[in-house]
Amino acid sequence: MDLLEQYFNSKIAAEEKIEAKDWMPEEYRKNLIRQISQHAHSEIVGMLPEGNWITRAPSLKRKSILLAKVQDEGGHGLYLYCAAETLGVSREQMIDDLLTGKAKYSSIFNYPAVTWADMGAIGWLVDGAAIMNQVMLCRTSYGPYARAMVRICKEESFHQRQGYDILLTLSKGTEIQRKMAQDAINRWWWPSLMMFGPSDAESTHSNQSMAWKIKRATNDELRQRFVDMSVPQVEILGLSLPDPKLKWNPERKHYDYGEINWDEFKNIIKGNGPCNKNRLASRNKAHDDGAWVREAATAYAYKKSSTAKSVA
Ligand code: 3HC
Q1: Which of 9, 274, 286, 295 is 20 to 30 A from 246, alpha carbon to alpha carbon?
Q2: Ligand 1 proximity of 140 Cβ (cutoff 6 Å)
Q3: Residues 244, 258 contacting (CB under 8 angstroms)
């Protein structure tokens, strides 16, 4: 091991952040670009299922909250693309990888949002799972990623509460509203558990990412924490989670839960989920429709810089 690598390892061991201009192993850099860009894409594609409900929100108040939430997700994508750019990858390259289907994004966003209660279940479960996973990333070893995550997590916790509030309102409503809330929870529970990634035994990157302190907890540890957190919350709603095997285990001091359908997970990652094609088509259309904005911004930046030069 050369001196540079020894110095890098000593910084990781001392909990010091690695910054953009610091030396880092090529594999550390590549692994971060992979994870941060997939994370950015997830935020951007994640705007679609909820964006679809902005015009159909049941009140002006709910509409403005949902609008703000979807806008936050767009912002998260932008902070994360910026963090990835500090590692030497260009924004154009990352966007191209997303639009051509080369890059991964979270499996969860390939399910449809079919009723208003889905806005509640997405906020409570999907954003809840995202926070459980992302709070640890505020302590990730790469400085620009860690700093972006602090603000993202603050906003995500507001998102989770707004989702829970929707479900709480529905759970106190009519029988039809209670059923709608239960149906949404039934459909989003298992996909939310899949957000944490494959089991530790199957996870390709966890060991190395844990050693480099990119990840601070494993996929299964975080999934278990999420299950433990969700059970008392669903009880307050007076609703249930769709898992007959869910049971408190006094020895482990955790809830046992049923087997995840890993075939479904793999199928979605391969691009064959219910909405994969639709999501990519929507992103491509948005990108094409926005071409004039990028062209105008480039022309404006050029004009401004030429004016500045001629004045100087
Ligand atoms: N969906 C799609 N792909 C997934 C996945 C999921 N839920 N879970 C894992 N994978 C992929 C990995 O990307 C990896 O593929 P690759 O080798 O081609 O890159 C492969 O499956 C093996 O998984 P690993 O466990 O080895 O991968 P990681 O160590 O990267 O762990 C992770 C996966 C826990 C998702 C980790 O990457 C992570 O913590 N990422 C940052 C957070 C993130 O991206 N969250 C996505 C949701 S963001 C969101 O939900 C927005 C919010 O507003 C709701």
Answers
A1: 274
A2: no
A3: yes
Q: What percent of the chain has pLDDT over 70?
A: 99
CB-ligand 1 contact for 197 (6 Å cutoff): yes
pTM: 0.95
Atom of ligand 1 nearest to the CA of 129: 50
148 neighbors 83 (Cβ within 8 angstroms): yes
Q: What is the pLDDT of residues 149-177, one digit of tens each?
A: 999 999 999 999 999 999 999 999 999 99
108 touches 192 (CB < 8 A): yes
310 Cα: distance to centroid of ligand 1 (angstroms) = 49
HSE-CB of 145 using CA atoms within 13 angstroms: 28
Tokens of 61: 């108040």
The answer to whether the beta carbons of residues 52 and 275 sit under 8 Å apart is: no
Kindly state if the Cβ of 126 falls inside 6 Å of ligand 1.
Answer: yes
Q: CB neighbours of 124 closer than 8 A, spacing ≥ 6? A: 160, 163, 164, 166, 167, 233
How many other CB atoms are there within 10 angstroms of residue 182's CB atom? 21
Choose one of 30, 47, 106 to mutate for the ligand 1 pocket test, by most ligand atoms within 8 angstroms of C-beta: 106
Q: What is the DSSP letter of 17?
A: P
3-class SS of residue 138: helix
| Among 44, 86, 51, 68, residue whose Cα is nearest residue 287 | 44
pLDDT digits (tens, 9 = 90+) for 95-125: 999 999 999 999 999 999 999 999 999 999 9
43 lines ligand 1 (CB under 6 A): yes
